[in-house]
Design goal:
The chain has 163 residues and is of the alpha/beta class. It has one domain: Rossmann fold, CATH 3.40.50. The protein is 34% helix and 23% strand. It contains six helices and six strands; from the N terminus they run βαβαββαβααβα. α1 runs parallel beside α6 and α3 runs parallel beside α5. It is globular, with a radius of gyration of 15 Å. The N terminus is likely disordered. It binds flavin mononucleotide.
């Protein structure tokens, strides 16, 4: 128990955000914004490896989507746990955010299997220059943009209000 209280709201306990952002830093922008909105401790997957995340009231996990799933380091992190945090949320940036539900499956499935309760999921467009896309400057140029960041802010507000 954190702070000696029984309140289960996101607002009542310490929050951590763990992310990987290897393509253009798109997800780092979202992770940084969420961390500031939720007053969370921000850490990379490397920094989170070997740490006990169960001590946090809520932990958010995010990365870009690469070949239909979150970054392999994030999946590996979850696989490595003996003890899992109770309450989590998932976020990503992607070339095709319309596929969010499907592309979050690998991470969500692992978290649920470890016994985590998933409070919410967020995905927005991220600048994507993979493969031949770079020839035309990529897709989703200038994303995440202000609208994406606003959506992320609203997502954080919902998390703060969630029980
Ligand atoms: C190697 C590679 C594979 C990708 N595969 C997908 C994919 O399967 N689905 C998708 O929607 N976006 C895909 N993308 C686009 C990224 O998810 C998108 O650019 C994301 O914003 C990158 O986040 P980052 O800058 O934080 O690493 C891929 C990008 C790269 C570099």
């Amino acid at each position: 128990m954190i702070n000696g209280d029984e309140d289960n709201t996101v607002a009542s306990g310490k929050v951590a955000i763990v992310y990987a952002s290897v393509h253009h830093g798109n997800t780092r922008q979202i992770a940084t914004l969420l961390a500031s909105q939720l007053d969370a401790e921000l850490m990379t997957v490397e920094e989170a490896m070997g740490r006990c995340l169960k001590a946090y009231r809520v932990v958010g996990f995010g990365s870009g989507i690469y070949f239909g799933r979150h970054h392999h380091s994030l999946l590996k992190l979850v696989d490595s746990w003996n003890e899992a945090p109770d309450r989590v949320f998932i976020f990503s940036t992607a070339g095709l955010p319309i596929l969010r539900s499907l592309q979050h499956t690998a991470l969500r499935g692992r978290l649920v299997k470890k016994g985590c309760s998933v409070l919410g999921e967020f995905c927005c467009r991220g600048w994507d220059t993979v493969g031949p896309l770079w020839l035309m400057g990529g897709i989703n140029r200038k994303h995440p943009n202000e609208r994406d960041l606003d959506r992320a802010r609203r997502f954080a507000e919902k998390l703060l209000a969630s029980r």
